[in-house]
Design brief:
InterPro entries: Cyt_P450, Cyt_P450_E_grp-IV, Cyt_P450_sf. Keywords: Fatty acid biosynthesis, Fatty acid metabolism, Iron, Lipid biosynthesis, Lipid metabolism, Lyase, Metal-binding, Oxylipin biosynthesis. Belongs to the cytochrome P450 family. Helices cover about 45% and strands about 10% of the residues. By secondary structure, it is an alpha+beta fold. The protein has a single domain, classed as Cytochrome p450, CATH 1.10.630.10. The strands form four sheets. It has a five-stranded mixed β-sheet. A three-stranded antiparallel β-sheet has the order 5-12-11. It has a two-stranded antiparallel sheet with strand order 1-6. Helix 1 crosses helix 5, helix 6 crosses helix 18 and helix 15 packs across helix 18. Bound molecules: protoporphyrin IX containing FE.
């Protein structure tokens, strides 16, 4: 069918980031160096971006990753343990445990212990009066979790943020792509538009990343020189927003009316979506009594949102032209471009980058020098250019990115509603799910499942190197699907999956071509880690 072949070509096209045209030069200060102790490491070849887009094997279906059909299963069917408590009181009690009495990890761990099961019933926040049905079946192991990706079994309509749906007044009156199920006609059109955006601008990604993040590191260096330390978060937000605007739209926000206000406006707007789920450190009567109980009125953010909308509308003409060809209105397309760029992309980078810096920073000087050696050697072998081919020759760096995404997936919660009755299997038992039941997965428990990963709680930089390492990539599911799978118009896997992996790799490349090592301090924050850089040791070889 013509329509479906054009869909599939678009859905693979975006994955091709040119290895020739997009390159950045090694800074003149970087000197040649000898030897690479990592040369013996095998290449990781399993990511889709590195394979030719023709003759790809079909990605594994979610069904193939989940439990075998119950008929073939030897596991006993067990009643799902746990209960929801009394109306209003049960959800309120679970919310207090989740946010305050126990905290998120202990909330889940203690219930696994109590029920002796990684599948059980509970309420998820926020509950009344924001969500009136907070009852879920929780999946907390790597075997049951991929059920959430199986579109034959589950529906993903209006549950991007969980058991409540933020007001569409926050998004121009539209339900944006993230809230649409693949069965809804607009899902394919809008996802095609995102694939178009990524493919149309792909040659700009590497040069713009280099330019925005070189600027970030220069500003950190200056701040460290004067104050002895520099916050990574605010600088990263500015760099990420500029990078996205420049690489996706060819527009530098600083040359427009938006100026440097983008990150601040987006953070406020995202808060209007997510406040029911965040611990902001405010007095409990305000935080829990108000922000976890009632939705903030969207009119309070209308003016700020309009400023963002104007920026996107004025700078996305070719993409909006394409949207019309796909049968979308310019207005709906623009609200979706804003959402994908600001919520999905900026929001994701705001969490992923500090988290990755935290894990790599904590891993210490030996990993830093191994990375610097590998990265600089590969760039040198590529004539001093950062190209896709050069990145291919950095197996340790690539493994470190996957390990960061495994140990702390940036978006930790996923929801899906059962379309029909079916059986879910954990490692120990099988459970009957009824049509209409809400399933919830807390992803870090699935990607730190000790039955799948050795030393699951540890950051193991070399974990994904070599053939055995590659086999584990199917259990890395930060993108709402397996790392060896691909986003399509028929699934809910992150449209920016390969873009994100590339951007994370480019961060490490930029860092270790400039510095031999670095030191950080880490504190908690409502979204991701708060990282302060206390030293950057300039490249000495
Ligand atoms: C670190 C950055 C990112 C992270 C962690 C991330 C994560 C995710 C996750 C977990 C989902 C699925 C949510 C769910 O349905 O439960 C998702 C969906 C999505 N992401 Fe990303 N994402 C990131 C960056 C991006 C980028 C750069 C794009 C740009 C195109 C993008 C576009 C989308 C879209 C359009 C969807 C909805 C897909 C659909 O409805 O089929 N994301 N993302």
């Amino acid at each position: 069918m013509a329509a479906s072949s054009s869909l599939s070509s678009l859905s693979t096209l975006h994955l091709q980031f040119s290895s020739q045209t997009s390159s950045t030069k090694l800074p003149a200060s970087s000197k040649p160096f000898k030897g690479n102790s990592l040369a013996a490491h095998q290449k990781i070849t399993a990511t889709i971006s590195e394979k030719p887009h023709i003759s790809q094997p079909p990605p594994p279906s979610a069904a193939a990753l989940t439990a075998a059909p119950s008929k073939a299963s030897k596991l006993p069917i067990r009643k799902i343990p746990g209960d929801y408590g009394l109306p209003l009181i049960g959800p309120w009690k679970d919310r207090q445990d989740y946010f305050y009495n126990q905290g998120r990890d202990e909330f889940f761990k203690s219930r696994i212990q109590k029920y002796q099961s990684t599948v059980f019933r509970t309420n998820m926040p926020p509950g009344p009066f924001i969500s009136f049905n907070p009852n879920v079946v929780v999946l907390l192991d790597g075997k049951s979790f991929p059920t959430l990706f199986d579109n034959d079994k589950v529906e993903k309509k209006d549950l991007f943020t969980g058991t409540y749906m933020p007001s569409v007044d926050l998004t121009g009156g539209y339900r944006t792509l993230s809230f649409l199920d693949p069965a809804e006609p607009s899902h394919a059109k809008l996802k095609k538009l995102m694939f178009f955006l990524l493919s149309y601008r792909r040659d700009h990604v590497m040069p713009e990343f280099h330019s925005c993040y070189a600027e970030l590191f220069e500003s950190l260096e200056k701040e460290i020189a004067t104050k002895g330390k520099a916050g990574f978060g605010p600088a990263n937000e500015q760099a990420a927003f500029n990078f996205l605007a420049r690489s996706f739209y060819g527009a530098d926000p600083n040359d427009t009316k938006l100026g440097s206000d983008g990150p601040k406006l987006v953070t406020k707007w995202v808060l209007f979506h997510l406040h029911p789920l965040l611990v902001l450190g405010l007095p409990r009567p305000i935080e829990d009594g108000i922000l976890h109980t009632f939705p903030l009125p969207p009119f309070l953010i209308k003016k700020d949102y309009q400023r963002l909308y104007d920026f996107f509308y004025q700078n996305s003409t070719p993409v909006l032209d394409q949207a019309e060809k796909l049968g979308l209105s310019r207005d709906e397309a623009c609200h979706n471009l804003l959402f994908t760029t600001c919520f999905n992309s900026f929001g994701g980078m705001k969490i992923l980058f500090p988290n990755m810096l935290k894990w790599v920073g904590r891993a210490g000087a030996k990993l830093h020098s191994d990375l610097a050696l590998e990265i600089r050697s590969a760039i040198k072998s590529n004539g001093g250019n950062v190209t896709m081919a050069a990145i291919e020759a950095m197996p340790l760096m690539k493994s470190v990115v996957y390990e960061s995404l495994r140990i702390e997936p940036p978006v930790s919660s996923q929801y899906a509603k059962a379309k029909r009755d079916f059986v879910v299997e954990s490692h120990d038992a099988a459970f009957q799910i009824k049509e209409g039941e809400m399933l919830y997965g807390f992803q870090p428990f699935a990607t730190k499942d000790p039955k799948i990963f050795d030393r699951a709680e540890e950051f193991v930089p070399t974990r994904f190197i070599g053939e055995e390492g590659e086999k584990l990539l199917k259990h890395v599911v930060w993108s709402n699907g397996p790392e060896n799978g691909a986003p399509t118009v028929n699934n809910k896997q992150c449209a920016g999956k390969d873009f994100v992996v590339l951007a994370a790799r480019l961060l490490l490349v930029e860092l270790f071509r400039r510095y031999d090592s670095f030191d950080i301090e880490v504190a908690a924050s409502p979204l991701g880690a708060s990282v302060t850089v206390t030293s950057l040791k300039r490249a000495s070889f």
